[in-house]
Amino acid sequence: MSEILIYQNENGNIKVDVMFEDGSIWLSQAQICELFGKAKSTISEHIKAIFEEEELNPISTVRNYRTVQKEGNREVERDIEYYNLDMIIAIGFRVRSSTGTKFRIWANDKLKEYITKGFVLNDERFKNGNSMGYFDELQKRLRDIRISEKFFYQKIKDIYMTSIDYDPKDEKTILGLLVEQYLAFAETMAIQRTPMYMKDWIARLDAVISLNGRELLTHAGKISHEMAIAKSGLEYKKFKDEQKKIEKIQSLKELEEDIKRLK
């Protein structure tokens, strides 16, 4: 499923809907012309030269997508060729455009975000309400999470394990119910198509915890900075000692394997 991101330069005079799919950015030839401020004939010549010089392979850099476009007063759906980020960058080098450089930085930043987080959030379209399919996708993802709640459960569990009255005996029942309530609320918001920001989700999670008679830690707690430093130092020393033991065992194993190979 493709996602549409919006690229807008700092002056606001260039605004392009960018398709994001399979870990790359895709633009049509018309969008590339708009991005670089060049005529279609110029961009066509560059694309042709890039393929003729075998700088890029059309199989990996070109895709056809069904796209709705305006032709006169009509909206027509046609197969349009789209080019990936490799081609866009290659064209950018040839037209020597500062806009191309800025776009490359923006695109690489988005790809990095995807690699790191596993998703890219289209903030602009979400804020403007132009992509209401977001809520349908959100509902689907929430259902997937409900099928396997391990991730959500583990996150809340990690928080509760820091409390001084943490009791592992009843954690599964209590935290399981907390997760169920929170996910039910999240799905309700998605069904009602209510826009939610990070601060809203945090506030609702606090409310769920409070309604269940659990105290929220809104202060520094009973553990002083010095106590925390001392504790972390002790735990880190234990960790390092354990690592040294593991490394020693591993080194001995490697030595034994080397000796066997020499025989």
TrEMBL record:
Protein name: Cell filamentation protein Fic
InterPro entries associated with the record: BRO_N_domain, Virulence_RhuM-like
One protein family per Pfam: Virulence_RhuM
Ranges where the Bro-N domain occurs: 1-119
Organism from which the protein derives: Aliarcobacter skirrowii CCUG 10374
